[in-house]
Specification:
Length: about 240
């Protein structure tokens, strides 16, 4: 990145730089992958570019469906320009099918169709290991107003409907995903972060039997191999469809 831009923040998978306009940022997607609260780390050449391109397409789809998002435009293949937001320290996970931590923490069997979407809220705090949190605790911590939280939950349900339908069109089953929101300069709530196979579970529907084929970060979590091939396949299906 051109050094006239100041690095404002570096996360596990992205770097955020200043922009000439104070209300915008430049987000660079890295090739790094982490899992289990960064206990597991690796680099996949080309992952940053794929996640950036996939996220850009998904943000465009959501914007076209009147979901407020931070995304403005692609700057190049692994960098996007976005509205600057103050991130709300919550990870909003929506689940359509039981998998991952839900099945480790409950007696619900992996692969169970949940009937209606389940939203799990986590406190975004690495030191505390992103604990599951309740609405009452969020209120107690004054993280955001109940009105704003309800608005975010409503947006999350709407986003699920849009994404579920979209992914089905490209033969992918949306199992679950994680969202982050923030406030812009005018205090509007915008969807931030990224929407990519790093934070969505996507199963291939092009399978003859019921075999689960993950085309997402579970490939890295479970050492299945072929992560770049899987992410490229998702990018290809998105571009063939749009
Ligand atoms: N997720 C994420 N970041 C996190 C935790 C979860 O993007 O720090 C995503 C994950 O990729 C999956 C969904 O949220 O799509 C639900 O993850 P889960 O709670 O099952 O946790 P995991 O099994 O990944 O530990």
């Amino acid at each position: 990145m051109n050094n006239k831009y100041e690095l404002i923040y570096e996360g596990k998978a992205k770097k955020v730089f200043s922009h000439d306009d104070a209300d915008k940022v430049i987000i660079e997607f890295k090739d790094d992958a982490t899992a289990f609260n960064a206990l597991k780390k690796a680099k996949f050449k080309g992952k940053g570019k794929l996640n950036c391109l996939i996220s850009a397409k998904i943000f465009e789809l959501l914007l076209n469906n009147n979901i407020p998002c931070h995304f403005l435009e692609l700057k190049n293949e692994n960098t996007m320009i976005a509205q600057k937001i103050k991130v709300i320290p919550l990870e909003i996970v929506l689940r359509n099918t039981a998998y991952g931590s839900l099945c480790k923490q409950t007696t619900i069997e992996s692969g169970t169709d949940l009937g209606k979407p389940l939203i799990d809220l986590y406190l975004k705090n690495d030191e505390l290991n992103d604990p599951l949190i309740t609405k009452d605790r969020i209120e107690l911590m004054n993280i955001l107003s109940t009105k704003d939280l309800n608005y975010i939950l409503d947006l999350t349900l709407r986003i699920n409907e849009i994404l579920k339908g979209f992914f089905k069109n490209i033969q992918l089953k949306l199992i679950d995903f994680k969202l982050e929101f923030g406030y812009d300069f005018k205090n509007n709530i915008l969807l931030g972060d990224e929407i990519s196979p790093d934070n969505c579970r996507l199963w291939d529907l092009n399978q003859k039997n019921d075999t689960i084929v993950s085309l997402d970060k579970d490939i890295f979590r479970n050492d299945l191999g072929g992560l770049i091939e899987a992410y490229s396949e998702i990018n290809r299906r998105i571009n063939d469809f749009i």
